[in-house]
Design goal:
alpha+beta; Thrombin, subunit H; Pdz3 Domain; 7-stranded antiparallel beta sheet
Length: 490
């Protein structure tokens, strides 16, 4: 309310100043005369969009059957707060609770309110898209249309990795949304959201696109906006000025428990791809190649001759995985997959995940200063497994001390155990190497883009280095490989 009042006051003072100037004999400048009308003409009108898209947006209520140890309405409220904490990263502000029924506990199988969200109609025959976290764990899903008709929905499928779900209601002739082209979406473009924040159905908010391809640690690159999104908006549409849905409102960033100007939406092209699989099979299949990856820094890229920071650094390769069979090695930098450039680390799991298992795809790796093309057959993704790192032994007949490091040879048996062709073991670390992050027990695989398989080779390569420049080392620690730079002492 204060913000609205301030805007009104600002406009009224402009008028007052104009009148004062006229009274004093001054003519208003063109900027003064035209400033307010120009601003007014530039503001968008969302009324037609609301009329066009509003009927396609639905309210989703989830219910859970009360268990024998249920705590009534209070327990339900706690579960809803946990849902918001989990998917919004914030505690939900205290909301009014339903008064508990006097003198009795809920019936053993009586459905109890669990949460509130939003969704939108994908097709006229009743398919509706929402967030997976909106319907997760629900025993019943109730969908309410804008004309107040209510339907019990069936969960067709939900994908936690992308947070996309599809539900189905028994109805026909429904007003479906138009899906927009996300590639045409521009930063600074006006967008609008419709949903049920805190259960307030058909609430409309608007703002602009703040950023695209925003990585937040999730599987997808999000659309960032400043549209006001709150708990209950989850699953609702993000709409462009053409009345097309370009995203699913999914998350917010907040330290206060409420909207703070940063919200995130799942790009609609990714959501549609997932929804098609959910509608056809009820589940989503994704590709995997079996590598552990890390980002490539600017310093590392320059030191190994890659040029710019791009690609995904392979820190480890799973034994027997597609990458292992294709010849991918720890220390490789994957720069292209199936013809697509890997600009940043997060691109690789995205492109691989969207590839149908069984596909044979080309993959480009940068290894020891040279790009190589390999061919890899993508497998289906599995549940993640935690593997203990291979034991590292330090028995070595030969030793050498240089670059602030004492290194030693490793045996044939150790190479087989560690799944490497060569390398030398770090026995002790001096100041410069310690500052670079090298630890005792690390395995040095290459120096300045040159592989080393023995202490003798290690010394030969180091002897040819320019001691005034940083030197890059490819090291393996446990199952992970990474590049480090040892800088000359000043």
């Amino acid at each position: 309310m204060k913000t609205m009042t301030w805007k009104k006051c600002a406009i009224s003072w402009t008028g007052v100043l104009a009148l004062m100037g006229a009274a004093a004999g001054f003519a208003p400048t063109s900027s003064m005369a035209q400033g307010v009308p120009t601003l007014a003409r530039g503001l968008p009108d969302f009324t037609e969009l609301v009329e066009q898209v509003g009927p396609s947006v639905v309210n989703i209520r989830t219910l859970e059957k009360a268990r024998a140890n249920a705590a009534g309405a209070a327990g339900s409220d706690e579960e809803m707060q946990e849902l918001f904490r989990r998917f919004f990263g914030i505690p939900m502000p205290n909301a009014p609770r339903q008064s508990p029924r006097p003198n009795r506990s809920p019936a053993p199988e009586e459905p109890q309110p669990r949460g509130v969200g939003s969704g939108f109609i994908l097709s006229a025959d009743g398919f509706i898209m929402t967030n997976a976290h909106v319907v997760e764990g629900a025993d019943e899903v109730m969908v309410t249309l804008t004309d107040k008709r209510e339907f019990k929905a069936r969960i067709v499928g939900a994908d936690k990795r992308t947070d996309v779900a599809v539900v189905k209601i028994q109805a026909t002739g429904l007003p479906a949304v138009k899906v927009g082209d996300v590639s045409r979406l521009k930063v600074g473009e006006w967008v609008m959201a419709i949903g049920s924040p805190f259960g307030l159905e058909n609430s409309v908010t608007a703002g602009i696109v703040s950023a695209k391809q925003r990585d937040t640690g999730e599987y997808l690159p999000f659309i960032q906006t400043d549209v006001a999104i709150n708990p209950g908006n989850s699953g609702g549409p993000l709409i462009n000025m053409r009345g097309e849905v370009v995203g699913i409102n999914s998350q917010i960033y907040s330290r206060s428990g409420g909207f703070m100007g940063i919200s995130f939406a799942i790009p609609m092209d990714e959501a549609v791809r997932v929804s098609e699989q959910l509608r056809s099979t009820g589940r989503v299949t994704r590709g995997r190649i079996g590598v552990q990856i890390a980002p490539v820094t600017k310093e590392v890229a320059e030191s190994i001759g890659l040029g710019k920071a791009q690609g995904a650094l392979v820190r480890g390769v799973e034994a027997g995985a597609p990458a292992d069979s294709a010849g991918v090695e720890a220390g490789d930098i994957i720069t292209r997959f199936d013809g697509k450039a890997i600009e940043k680390m997060s691109d690789l799991p995205r492109w691989v995940g969207n590839t149908k298992p069984g596909t044979r795809a080309p993959i480009t790796v940068f290894r020891r200063g040279v790009s190589k093309e390999l061919f890899i057959t993508v497998a289906e993704i599995e549940s993640e497994k935690t593997e203990a790192p291979a034991a590292e032994k330090k028995t070595a007949p030969a030793k050498a001390t240089t670059l602030g490091l004492t290194v030693s040879d490793i045996s044939v048996a150790q190479k087989k155990e560690l799944r490497v062709r060569g390398g030398v073991m770090v026995d002790s670390v001096g100041d410069a190497a310690a500052r670079a992050g090298i630890l005792e027990g690390d395995l040095i695989l290459a120096v300045a883009n040159t592989e080393v398989s023995s202490v003798k080779e290690f010394e030969a390569v180091v002897s040819k280095l320019d001691k005034s420049r940083p030197v890059s080392l490819l090291i393996k620690r446990g199952d992970a490989a990474q590049y480090v730079l040892i800088r000359p002492s000043k």
